[in-house]
Amino acid sequence: MLSQQTWVIAILLTTVLKVLHSLFQVRRLRKSMPPGPPGLPLLGNYLDMGSFVWFKFTEWKEQYGSIFSLNVFGQPVIVLNDFTTTVDLLDRRSNIYSSRPRFIMANEIMAEGLSLALAPYGDLWRRMRRAAHAGFAGKATAAYQPLQEKESALLALHILDDPEKWSSHLKRSVASTMLCAVYGWLSIDSSADSMVKRINDLMERVFHATLPGNYLVEFFPSMLHLPTWMAKWKREGLEWRRRDTEMFESFIGDVQSRVQLGGSDPCFAGALLENRDKHGLSYREMAWLAGAMYGAGAETTAAVLDVFVLAMVLHPYVLHRAQKEIDAVVGRDRLPSFSDKEQLPYIDAIIKELLRWRPVGPLSMPRATVQDDWYQGYFIPKGTLVISNVWAINRDPKYFPNYDEFRPERYLGASGQVVDHIPDTRGQGHMTFGCGRRGCVGKDFANQALFMDIATILWAFNIEKTLDAKGQPITPSKTDFLDEGLVV
Q1: Which of 37, 106, 221, 264 has the greatest number of C-beta atoms within 10 Å?
Q2: Could you tell me the superkingdom of the organism this chain comes from (predicted)?
Q3: What CATH number does residue 399 fall under?
Q4: For the chain, first and last CA: distance in Å?
């Protein structure tokens, strides 16, 4: 048997040879690929892939156009920067652009290959996607409306009791809604904060692990074979996997016990267990799918609500117009409900503008091409990583004049109703939920939850600037709550 030292040398040598081969290949291919910024020898554009990289991508869009290419350690990368290019490739050619890169750290190591968002296109992904769609898309979301109305009312009560902790109340309310929907739990209170934090920490680790450039193993897969004693990232990832699997299996095990005793409320995990033969998912696969649906929904929805508060503080005319609409439709004798939705188009417009103005994921998770392709005379080789620059797409001046302004009325027609003026977004009016086969499976549930929470908050409260020690209003920055993140 080889000694550990010899084994490590062999891995490093294999990595170096692979990099040199990849660099030679990419250098040859880039002549036919979309134009892009020149990189450094060996590193390519790796040093450009830092924090808030979408700002750099948006600068390059002005220089190189709506589609440009990068080279990261020999890995070809394509960045899409407008609606037309993104829909042309990710939706109309979804047979080529629906897979994922390996995501060695985030999926293979941390999630045992069981992450719906990160799994490559294939049989397991299709089975998990069908199960998720059955529970959280289209007409299925109507079953959650009573829950969402109840949780929105509780949110208003909690803010009323302690308005200084409004952000914590938002996060807890969203977590409670998702836990009830996914696992059939009753509404949660502060006693569950540590558990909610644990799941949110998991989602933050996943986002961090999927950002381009954060783990070199993504570009040098042979590093996966390094022994754990010399690869801290691998050691930590395997320990996270153990803990997270244990947590998710305990959650779905609790649902299974309640189902067997006949005391479980209808929920996503319960439906998974009931239809496990139909979906063809193992117990562990169901556990990870349920956990992923909770984590993705809770993290993103809470972030949008934080941005909503920021927008209302900065744009009081929007707040007052929305409240006027709610007062006219709902009045002061009852809370808003989903039966009011058709008569509250300005609330829908606010939600669309929130998702456009400050997308919770300024970049899409990379997809990977499964075969060679040509587009607009450019060559896109098999295995290329394809990233949508959601930040730039949602700020396209062609569709969004004065794009940095928060203007919900941009989504309203002459009659005052919401209009679909962006081609191929299927009524969304932005690219925040992605598109094609990898588009966000929970977008209907998320839009529903945002409508109920925002309508209730606007009905119940005024939102104003806080005051400093001298009694003067403090104007927050437009960049507050701007954070790194990825969407599908």
Answers
A1: 106
A2: Eukaryota
A3: 1.10.630.10
A4: 44
